[in-house]
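Input:
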Amino acid sequence: MSHERKPVTLTQLRNMKAAGDKFSCLTAYDAGFARVVDEAGVDVILVGDSLGMVVQGHKTTVPVTVDDMVYHSKLVARSCERALLMVDMPFMAYATMEQALVNAMRLMQEGGGQIVKLEGSGVQLDIVRELALRGVPVCAHLGLQPQVVHKLGGYRVQGRDEAGAQAMRNSARALEDAGADMLLLECVPRALAAEITASVSIPVIGIGAGPDTDAQVLVLHDILGITPGKVPRFSHNFMAEAGSIQAAVAAYAAAVRERRFPAPQHCFE
Ligand code: KIV
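Output:
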């Protein structure tokens, strides 16, 4: 299915989960790179608020605004012919119900997004429910939530203690019940991610969450080896073994599809 050029739908991704087929997701932030990612057969393109760090040069994702997300999503949407387009709701863009509805509308109507992603599961449950009722597809982001890095005091693996693990299991089920269409788990021990993936019927995308999630996502700049500073342990420089950007992105998509990525060195216990 990854070689077909028909647009990817949420139904197809759910069917892939049911069939045990892995799918790939990669970030892109402009039309040029989005075309490469789309043509390489990546199934979901994420316009991540990681653009705050890799494009805008900020230290965190916190300064990213809804206008920034709409702008970059518009650029990516122009090249997105096959991949499903997922767009991040940035920090505080869903602090109230009204903001969540208005900003999801902007990301879809102006930005061309087909599914929005938001972090957390507490007060966000009602927001996910309301968005779902109004026909907005939602991916809920659990585990490490970079938008609250200042509250967390750093980027750390989440769910290593039993209380944290249990809270994540409960959140995943509650988000599915609230109408989330996908889950994303970031920096989660592989056994916990495997358990959560098996416990919900919606597709689960992992980053630093081991090989047993239904899909993998990475940041484009990390796989191309151009991220400034320290590259996260869960990522892999596919450019180092490829002769071109196109070949590196295609190698990533194939490695996910064929279950060669992530390898044990990319996982947390
Ligand atoms: O913003 C982003 O790119 C993300 C991924 C790291 C999952 O949320």
